[in-house]
Amino acid sequence: MKLLITSVGSLLGQNILDSIETRRDIIEVVGTNSIAANQRNFRCDTVYLVPNTESPDFSEKFMEIINQEKPDFILPGRDEDCIFLSGLKSKDPEYFKNRIPFGSSFIPKIMFDKYQSYLFCKENNLPFAETFLYKSKKDETGLNEFIEKHGFPLMVKPKEGFASSDVYFLFNRGQVRKNLKTGEKLFQEYLGHPENLSVYKNIFLHGLPLFFQLPEEEQYAAQTIIAPDGGVGEIFITVNTMIYGRAEYGKQIFNRDVEDLVKQFCKAFYKHGWYGPVNFQLKPDKNGQWKVFELNPRMTGTTSGRVLLGYDEFGILAGIFAARFKIPNLTKKKKVKGVLIKYLSDNLLLEDDIKRLQKDKIWKRS
Q: 36 and 81 share a domain?
């Protein structure tokens, strides 16, 4: 199989590479990336230096790569790539039918826009964290009502984004006012236990630490795959500890309420043209009701970890969309009992490789 991974330099790109590492003898990897100085580029057999996905030049360059490489399977490394690839598939559904293993671009667009995610869930009677979009001064009354209803702490985040960038906890109205000065903002109810934040909030009473972050010790995530016929595959749930936005500790859990909720969401997604991988981040609210607060139409930064626990998203997808290649599916019926721990590792990035990719816009393994 020739596998093309877009934005291969991303954390997700690394997870896809890690998850197929033991099968590289039967998988040739072609990558694209917009930054040359990234070690993940050089884990590919061939990598192309390309403009950003949002660039007007990207589409033409990408199609040149498609025509040159003729990949059998294409996976996205970022949310924007999901939107681009699903749009590409809609333009040529026959050619990309099994090469791009997911559905229409409507759902990825909804998931990328956090407020549209909320509206979609509300319209489809799906439990999602209560959300308020502040655009201008005329929204101040609505925002005040939102604060009165949900209280502090609150979350504030950009309307579009990824990797938890520019997401803050707010504890008082003064902090709210400061955020209103920086344009359009999304306010969201805080899910979880507010008392867990108090310890870290009080640290600032002693000054600003040299190194600081809030470890998220109860980040629940559910991963599944919707088949082209609408069937929902195994639902794999983990509870993770997030360090600087990365899941560095995790273990599998079993929860029937979460499974039922995921199936409810998947039914709505399929109705609107989506099949393929889906990831949910969710928590119980103050009343114990499970609510989703983040949706992703792709694999995630814990994809390779789930393989170690016995859930192989790549193997499942390949079995559905590219069965002729007979890619081994590493999913185990009886899951591995253990926990996931991520550690930093050293990677050598050779100057000659960087210069070659920058100059030629392509690098091939010797």
A: yes
